[in-house]
Each structure stands twice: as structure tokens, then as C-alpha cells.
Amino acid sequence: MTKLQVVAAVFIRDGNVLGCRRAPGRVAAGQWEFPGGKVEPGEDPRFALQREVAEELGIDVTVGDLLDRTPTAVGELTIDLACYGITEYSLEPIASSDHDALSWFAPEDVFAVSWAKPDLPMVRKIAAWRMWRSQNSAVSFENVDPSRA
Ligand SMILES: Nc1nc2c([nH]c(=O)n2[C@H]2C[C@H](O)[C@@H](COP(=O)(O)OP(=O)(O)OP(=O)(O)O)O2)c(=O)[nH]1
């Protein structure tokens, strides 16, 4: 089975998380995911994520912690998806070359849309951040502890 190493960016703004809808004509069009893409052979995953985000969203980011890494079988492929928190970004993401919609989701609203299957472990963690936020005034990377999700 072919394994694809894919990296994805979890942006947080005011406690909301950025989701992107794959544009018509792309693999898995219409599904929601995080910005990112495939790691090239021999490439550092964090560097790959910076490169993909720059290509797709046209912005520079600082890549923080690995929040989730789960391999998922999708047809004949295994998607080895690693999701990293983005700690700083040069500009607000507003448009993407690969997506036809960008939206910020509160943790309690993440399941309002249909996510790509490999993204579900990360999305479940985000949904669990609601409990964490209810004990704290705001969610941010400074006070989200991924081990609690
Ligand atoms: N970018 C991204 N891809 C994801 C996610 N979840 C998921 O299953 N995928 C899948 C879709 C694709 O099969 C693969 C990544 O492909 P891509 O098309 O985004 O990557 P890329 O920009 O490097 O590809 P390409 O257009 O250069 O061929 O991983 C996700 O959250 N973000």
C-alpha cells in the first residue's frame, strides 16, 4: 500500500480554528481539511509545511508543536497526516490556491462540515478543546495542552 506523508497547519485565531474546503477538480473536492500538502522525499516536515502554506495561502508561518499524527487508509493509499500548530503568521489567511472556502470554526462547531477522513483524529481533539476552554477564558497555543485532548 502506498503511503503519503502529508503535513497540515492548525491555525488558531481568537479560539477558532481554520478549515479549508478542497476546490472542485481536486482529489476529495468538497471535503474540509487543514492547509498543507505532501512532504517531498528527504524534506524536513516543518519546512515542508512552511513551503506548502506559502504556496497555498501566500503567507509565512512559524510551525510549532506536533498536535496529532495518525495514519489513515483511504482507498489504496495510506495518508500519514501530521498536524502542527501554527504559532505565528505574517498575514491573516484569506484565500487559498487549492480551496474554494476558508472558514474559522469554534471548537464546538467543527463537526458542522464534512472533514477528510484522515483529519478526524485532529478534529476530535479540537472539539475536545471546548472543555478545556470552559475552564479558561480563552483558547490559545499557550494554554492548550494537546495531551489533555
Ligand atoms: N493538504 C492537506 N491534504 C490532506 C489533508 N487531509 C488529507 O487527507 N489530505 C490528503 C489529500 C491529498 O491526497 C494529500 C495531500 O495532497 P495535496 O494535493 O494537498 O498536496 P500537494 O499540494 O503537495 O499536492 P500536489 O497538488 O502538488 O500534487 O493528502 C489535510 O488536512 N491537508
From TrEMBL:
EC number: 3.6.1.55
Organism, scientific name: Herbiconiux moechotypicola
Gene3D superfamilies to which the protein is assigned, alphabetical: Nucleoside Triphosphate Pyrophosphohydrolase (3.90.79.10)
Protein family membership: Belongs to the Nudix hydrolase family.
Keywords linked to the UniProt accession: DNA damage, DNA repair, DNA replication, Hydrolase, Magnesium, Metal-binding, Mutator protein
Cofactor(s) for this UniProt protein: Mg(2+)
Annotated PANTHER family: 8-OXO-DGTP DIPHOSPHATASE, NUDIX HYDROLASE FAMILY PROTEIN
Enzyme class, broadest EC rank: hydrolase
Reaction catalysis annotation: 8-oxo-dGTP + H2O = 8-oxo-dGMP + diphosphate + H(+)
Protein name: 8-oxo-dGTP diphosphatase
Domain Nudix hydrolase stretches: 1-127
